[in-house]
Fold this sequence. Notes:
single chain
Amino acid sequence: MFQHLRMIRHGKIHGYAVRCFIGLALLSSFGVCSAAAAVLCVNPGGKAGCKSTIAAAVAAAAPGDTIEVAQGTYAEDVTITKPLSLVAAQNAHPTINATGLPNGIFINGMSAAPHAGVAQVLVSGFSIHGADFEGILVVNASDVTLVDNHIFDNNQSLDIADSACPGIPAFETNEGDDCGEGIHLMGANHTSVVRNESDHNSGGILISDETGPSFDNLISENYIHDNPYDCGITMASHGPATTVIPTATVSFGVIHNTISHNVSARNGLQLPGAGAGVGIFAPFPGTTASGNVVIGNEILNNGLPGVTMHNHAAAPAPAPAVNLNNNVIIGNHISGNAADTEDAATAGPTGINLYSVAPVYGTQISQNVIDDEAIDIAFKAPAGRVDAHFNDFGRNAIGVDNLGMGNIDATENWWNCAAGPAGKKCATAAGSNVWSTPWLTSPFDFDHGR
Length: 450
């Protein structure tokens, strides 16, 4: 399943710390669940004292129990509201066929919204397909681990012609055009999504905030590919679910999440401008997508710029502010992606595009290799600043394009030749308020930081 997932050649940047964090997160989840009081079993015939359905085993389980599922296909929508481990039995690869059902697995802590109402859940080793909406939906949960699952061919309710998702629950306020994607974390924190494959859903993995803040989640070492109608990985701040939290007036925020060492390829290609490799969105007043880190990923051949950051609407005080600040894009390989479209349009295929009608500050773009793009980094905002250093730009590309009134500190980059952005056949700098001197006279050494 994961033969296409590999550490990229410059993935050593902060990679040790990220990998240690992954290991600790998984050990923490497995450690909690391994102390379970009982192990329940499931097989298709309910033989040897086992349950015949996963849902029956979940209902019978006490908090902290482990449920081992034997080989077979289970036509179910499994809802989990308590701490437990749901795992494939040894040498088994069970399938949840959710055809005609809302989800394959729904980890539901919404009773405590906007806080987490369920914690310490592990789901490992399943293939999940056919759901009307998400393959796995995690809502108002903490310390969830999703590892080694294959999520494919979900979001079946999506009506492409009308850009609608008939029947999607009202608390999913902005998922009408994608049915929630393959894996969806909403109001989740300290959740790890590791070594999964997500393909041929509308989109791959979505983190959003309708029912509470989504923060400190880790999306790592996943293979996310060929999701035709949305991004590979999306971090999006949406309108609050007032059906769940009637007093909510502004979004809760998508904050401090880490997108690490994934492959995100060939997503969003079915419609023009359908999806990026990684998207970070605070689209309208009161939304927050801030302080997120995109590190060490392969981002290839997607239908929007490889990393796409958007805000499309803002309003003067006292309207709620937009917060698309302090996101970090570091150590990625970005190649062969498409141009941005509509109000965020770029003049050609683009590696990283930051577009906002509100000021944006604190964006760090560093140590990326960007190639096979017409524009490597584009920035358009009425004010703000981007710091872009130690990147390797493509030959004959526009390395940095400032389309707005903000500032770009683009010093200490490799412009694909020693002469810098003014050199023949070098990458170039376009627009005003771009500072490029001094530049690197050789490619950045990603192994030794020089």
